[in-house]
């Protein structure tokens, strides 16, 4: 007795002739010759020239970061705009970067940031500047029990008086129970 062997259903297999194999190889070679140069060209496409402000919306007096890219990120470029003037962006980690502060008195509005690369290419983005508004006082959110004025002392004194009265009643109640036994 042996181990039963299960046979798989037979499949029809077509054997290619030498001519068909040769034609298939020629088709593959033709496809490679036609499409590989297109892939090589797309891989050599010029890097994007761009400029970004992060965050793109700031209050007057706040700082924001610039990140830019030119064809050659090994050379410094310049970003210009009304609120910041002309700022050099220096190579760092494969990009051109800088940190800039919007002047405190700058008017609110949208300003165009323009990158000028050493090779003459440009890119731009928009910086949104908001007016700097400081609140004159804190929000009215409650009774102000912890505020430093006379009411805090009154509340603390009233709470201590109530605790003392409760303790005195507890002591008197315990004495009466013991006396009644």
From TrEMBL:
Parts of the chain that traverse the membrane: 154-174
Keyword Transmembrane: yes
Membrane among keywords: yes
Domain of life: Bacteria
Keywords linked to the UniProt accession: Membrane, Transmembrane, Transmembrane helix
Name the UniProt record assigns to this protein: Sortase
